[in-house]
Amino acid sequence: MGEKAIQVADLTRDFGSFRAVDNVTFEVGRGEIFGFLGPNGAGKSTTIRMLTGHLLPTSGSGTVAGLDIIRDHRRIKSQIGYMSQRFSLYEDLTVEENLTFFGGVYGLPRKRLRERSAALLELVGLTERRRELARHLALGLRQRLGLAAAVLHEPAILFLDEPTSGVDPISRRNFWDLIYAMAERQVTVLVTTHYLDEDEFCDRLGLIHQGRLIALGTPRELKEAMPEQILVVYPDRLAEALELARTLPAVMDAAVFGDSLHLTTSSLAAAESALREACAARQITLRRLGRNPPTLEDAFISLVTRHRRG
Questions:
Q1: Least CB-packed of 104, 133, 134, 230 within 10 Å?
Q2: Distances 54 to 4, 47, 61, 82 between C-alpha atoms, Å
Q3: Are residues 119 and 249 in the same domain?
């Protein structure tokens, strides 16, 4: 497999006249955690389905674990692990029985299955609950069990499609600790998520919008590449100040962050001057103003906005 676990060139998928994935090109290194970031309908899940052998591309090429995604698409499924937010566990089976079932699907020898099940139950913290029915587990624990089942056969590459959707913040963080443990064992992880704080945990990110890969880099690189600046404002009448800020030519975008506004601008001085004048006319008090380094969310909004305009 070399150093590249996944390689994709000009990957495209059409559904009739609709282009879901449009000439996507990227590669993922061995042991890397690569995140797909994008809104609903951007093409993330469709791309994963092509990489996992569940869907053939309309055009383009790619390899996963050294296997061609077109010619070897059936063989790919045995070389990878896959998990989504709707991972199919059998609710009437116990935790241990679920792993036994999936071990049989993967064709693991009985001795190896016992060894792997014991090791993974310890890793995901379910050893003491191994005889409990899956339907009695909380969602966060079910996702841990789903992850254990997905890596039972020791795949070199793991695909996680929004695996923590609906899971509470503590369980999400625990789940990411497990992902890091996989990566330390040189398992390559490709993950999609709606949670921008989770994307900060990835080694690199690919931002997909309307089927196109519009940005690629580390979280830090994506934030540093943002040409706009962020003016943080704490007004006494938040909603009214938001509507007012959106009318100012010097403000490119305005959004609420807690009890403050984040204003995106190409000129901090011009935006601050215009905002002060407009708020004074409306008798809106600005308790504090300051400059913030851009967050990943700021970078995401900036990149998508520029793509829509361009």
A1: 104
A2: 21, 10, 15, 11
A3: no
